[in-house]
Design goal:
Blueprint: E1 4-13, H1 18-35, E2 38-54, E3 57-69, H2 71-83, E4 87-95, H3 98-110, H4 112-123
Antiparallel strand pairs: 1-3, 1-4, 2-3
């Protein structure tokens, strides 16, 4: 079983309370672990206005996960994400070096100007 590195951005319904959002994210992190993947790190990016409405919602809560998984795990993860109505969108990208991507994310998170540009780039606005 070959594990690859992935960066996953999950955008959940902005109307959720912090507690409900944490339960929702825990559901998926538990699933990832149960399927045999490894979560290197996770971080809440925060509550943001969306560039455009998604499922009639104007805001979302961004969560980022850095994981190691194989294709079967990713396939099941994406399938389960599609069933959850409180997940507005998710972005899953294969990366070469998880540590490098984590450091890059931490730097972007600290810089508000770059942070806002990154969100715009991710959403394609």
């Amino acid at each position: 079983m070959i594990l690859r590195n992935y960066e996953v951005v999950i955008v959940s319904d902005g109307a959720l309370t912090d507690e409900d959002n944490q339960k929702l994210i825990s559901k998926f992190t538990d699933l990832i672990k149960k399927l045999g993947a490894k979560i290197e790190s996770e971080a809440i990016w925060g509550r943001r206005n969306l560039a455009y409405e998604v499922k009639k919602k104007k805001s979302g809560i961004y969560q980022i996960l850095f994981i190691q998984a194989n294709g079967e795990i990713i396939e099941e993860f994406e399938k389960q994400m599609g069933y959850e109505e409180q997940i507005l969108k998710y972005f899953l990208v294969s990366v070469d070096d998880l540590k490098k991507e984590q450091e890059r994310f931490d730097l972007l998170k600290e810089d508000n100007l770059k942070n806002s540009k990154l969100i715009t780039e991710v959403l394609g606005a």
